[in-house]
UniProtKB/TrEMBL annotation:
Family in the record: Belongs to the PanB family.
Enzyme Commission number(s) of this protein: 2.1.2.11
Protein name (database record): 3-methyl-2-oxobutanoate hydroxymethyltransferase
UniProt organism field: Salinisphaera orenii MK-B5
Keyword match Ribosomal protein: no
Keywords (A to Z) from UniProt: Cytoplasm, Magnesium, Metal-binding, Methyltransferase, Pantothenate biosynthesis, Transferase
Pfam families given in the database record: Pantoate_transf (PF02548)
Entry's Gene Ontology molecular function annotations: 3-methyl-2-oxobutanoate hydroxymethyltransferase activity; magnesium ion binding; methyltransferase activity
Residues where 3-methyl-2-oxobutanoate binds: D58, S59, D97, K126
Cellular component terms per the entry's GO annotation: cytoplasm
Subcellular localization: Cytoplasm
Reported function: Catalyzes the reversible reaction in which hydroxymethyl group from 5,10-methylenetetrahydrofolate is transferred onto alpha-ketoisovalerate to form ketopantoate.
Cofactor: Mg(2+)
Reaction(s) catalysed by this chain's protein: (6R)-5,10-methylene-5,6,7,8-tetrahydrofolate + 3-methyl-2-oxobutanoate + H2O = 2-dehydropantoate + (6S)-5,6,7,8-tetrahydrofolate
Length: 277
């Protein structure tokens, strides 16, 4: 029996990850490991650890800028952080968020995506919303923009929702299942599912033809994503249920990041205590 704690590092292909690779990973049952990053140093750390997808999240508004929500983040902020994060990557696929109200119309969304991909070197853009965003997804997809559709808890709607709460319980589950289907049909290349019951995460994943990445969506999604500062124990305040601090058992930042990737790949994370019912 191998004693190598990071077999994924020996098995991975050194070439850059593509959308086709992510689709293959879903079809073959290989878990997709994702993390946020906001600069070149953390990007390089995650690349060394074998992270498949790096997200420049508008979560930077909270964990980097110190705001209470993601709402104040600007397009210029996202372009800057995307560009400097891209500078640290060699293998991982780079996805960047469209910030609050920068995609209010499909034309706004295309203009913002143009900046994030042209100036920010993003390879995919992500934005929040269910059925209402299907037309925008189609508009971008038909023009060559890879799109990740974000459903479930939508942090940009925190003031509308009244806080960060689990979504998709009761009758809302059927709406979310329908939203996922409509967004995929519109051309979404990936779905990010946040803070929903594990059973709903499993159902949406089983019925999706594109990779489904979960954050607080149970163990059965095609991949997992967390905020990098959370896995390193750097985020202040109360931690969400789905967060695991990988620095607790690691001696270095590199070991913590590699432990996270290995735990996602072999199914040890998320454990039952990280899921919602």
């Amino acid at each position: 029996m191998s004693t190598d704690p990071y077999p994924h590092l020996q098995q991975r292909d050194a070439r850059p990850v593509t959308l086709s690779d992510l689709a293959r990973m879903k079809s073959e049952g290989e878990k997709i490991a994702c993390l946020t990053a906001y600069d070149a140093s953390f990007a390089a750390l995650e690349d060394r650890a074998g992270v498949d997808v790096v997200l420049v999240g508008d979560s930077l508004g909270m964990v980097v800028q110190g705001h209470s929500s993601t709402v104040p983040v600007t397009v210029d902020d996202m372009v800057y952080h995307s560009r400097i994060t891209a500078a640290g990557l060699g293998r991982a696929f780079l996805m960047t968020d469209l910030p609050f109200l920068s995609y209010a119309t499909k034309h706004d969304a295309l203009a913002t995506a143009h900046r994030l991909m042209g100036e920010g070197a993003a390879q995919m853009v992500k934005f929040e919303g269910g059925e209402i965003q299907a037309d925008t997804v189609e508009h971008l997809s038909m023009r060559g923009v890879p799109v990740c559709a974000h459903i479930g808890l939508q942090p940009q709607l925190v003031h509308k929702l009244g806080g960060f709460r689990v979504q998709g319980r009761g009758d809302a589950a059927e709406t979310m299942i329908r939203d996922a289907k409509l967004l995929e049909e519109a051309g979404a290349d990936m779905i990010l599912l946040e803070c929903v019951p594990a059973a709903l995460g499993a159902e949406i994943t089983a019925n999706a033809g594109v990779p489904v990445i979960g954050i607080g969506a149970g163990p059965d999604t095609d991949g997992q994503i967390l905020v990098v500062y959370d896995i390193l124990g750097l985020s202040p305040g109360r931690k969400p249920r789905f967060v695991k601090n990988f620095m607790d058992d690691a001696g270095t930042l590199d070991a913590a990041a590699a432990d996270y990737v290995a735990a996602v790949k072999d199914g040890r994370y998320p454990a039952p205590e990280h899921a919602f019912s």
